[in-house]
User: Fold this.
Amino acid sequence: MNIVDITVVGFEEPSWLPRVEQFCLKVLEELQLDNWELSIVFCTNQFIRELNNRFREKNEVTDVLSFSQSEGEPFPYFPNPSKTVGDVVISLDMVETNRLNTGETWDSELKRLLIHGILHLAGYDHENSDEEGEMMDLQDRLLQQFMEERIRT
Assistant:
């Protein structure tokens, strides 16, 4: 069983959060990832800039960050059937900015960022040119597959 925990920083909690949880659970199921526990954090541009600066030494706003629990030292083993895989942080300000720049719907852009973050936690990387195509192809396939899913109505 997968678990998705959602937190909102800098905004009032929107009514559509349960649909985000359901969407993420469907993506995890499609990727055949089981017993995952992940956190989704929705935040402002200011908050994500601070994280980007602190952890990536890039003092700039970005739309999504993923923080894996499996980076660095090995994660200690606990006899627990679920594993905490990490956090996906998304700037809701950037969802709107990206939507305006691309002409996509708000839902489509949010789903893209959620999928993108989950794929990073699953080990996909687009910084490496050898892996970029595979990750982006899978992201596009998942977006197409879940095109009809609605998050914000």
